[in-house]
User: Fold this.
Amino acid sequence: MSQQAGRKFNVAVAGATGAVGGAMLEVLERRDFPVGELRLLASPRSVGRKLSFRGKEHTVQLLDKDAFAGIDIALFSAGGDRSLEFAPAAAAAGAVVVDNSSAFRMDPEVPLVVPEVNPHAIVQYKNKGIIANPNCSTIQMLVALKPIHDVARIKRIVVSTYQAVSGSGAEAIAELENQVRAWVEGKPLPREVYPHQIAFNCLPHIDAFLDTGYSKEEMKMVNETRKMFEDDTIGITATTVRVPVFYGHSESVNIETEKKIGAAEARELLASAPGVQVVDEPALARYPLALDSAGKFETLVGRIREDESIANGLNLWVVADNILKGAALNTVQIAEIVGRDYL
Ligand code: NAP
Assistant:
């Protein structure tokens, strides 16, 4: 199966007016995706708004069950409830859905895909017409860990995240900006999105807490990693933290492997791994930074060093643009494979 040369695909973007939806349009442009018709969908609030794509204005239409006739690929980023309500309708209308929300990620019939990790799973979209995009924190961690897992088998992962506010959407980006401005002006800080002030603060609280004390975000990292590595025996423990950064999630990742792998070998493996850029010259103060990751497609990996407290352990610092590789880029990469190999 392969895409006919020059074939174009009719693409719908559900949630086109959001932080991720806007980035999807940017990525479709930057990667020269063969878009035929483009249908931009959002809530009644945005109907009639104009968004630009490849220099042409497109009018936002209502996201509803009838919005998908004639669409080949539907990219969803309008929240989990909208995905649950409208993704099956899009699939029934003949579109292949790539969904950014958590709605279908753990559905055993829906493939959960990072193209650098498990592209072979995409074929399972035929079950329900839906492919799930993993959580942003999981995506970048697995892009960095897959090459190591392939040669040394990872037994255990301990990860702490430092996640940008853009992961909570356009309103959260505005909240950080407004709090910083109010602080500079000596005014009371507005607070709507987060339970505490996010400016000049770190919140160890992403998504709701479960009875176990873990947050849902932390358990996404556990469950999604096991699903994509196709290994339920990997031990994973996560602490996810929101930090006052606009774009770019950072992660401290500690792994224990079955087979010994040294820092130099890991660095070499990662240097040739797809989607990875090694930035690891600490003596020159060169290491992955959130600010440097913003706008980039690659996952940056550095501070690669052996964990001296165990026999087979490594530490890594992993940074990526959460809106690009963590969401829009990964979605478009999946759509590229669907178009090339399956439609
Ligand atoms: P956002 O900036 O708040 O945008 C939300 C989008 O959803 C807007 O386009 C909004 O349209 C639309 N929407 C909201 N309610 C709607 C409704 N009732 N009917 C139709 N459209 C509706 O949020 P975001 O950051 O882009 O995130 C959007 C989705 O992507 C969420 O599901 C989020 O969980 C997911 N996401 C996933 C990752 C990841 O981990 N892979 C990363 C970031 C986000 P209006 O402008 O008309 O309100």
Observations:
- The first strand starts at residue 9 and ends at 14.
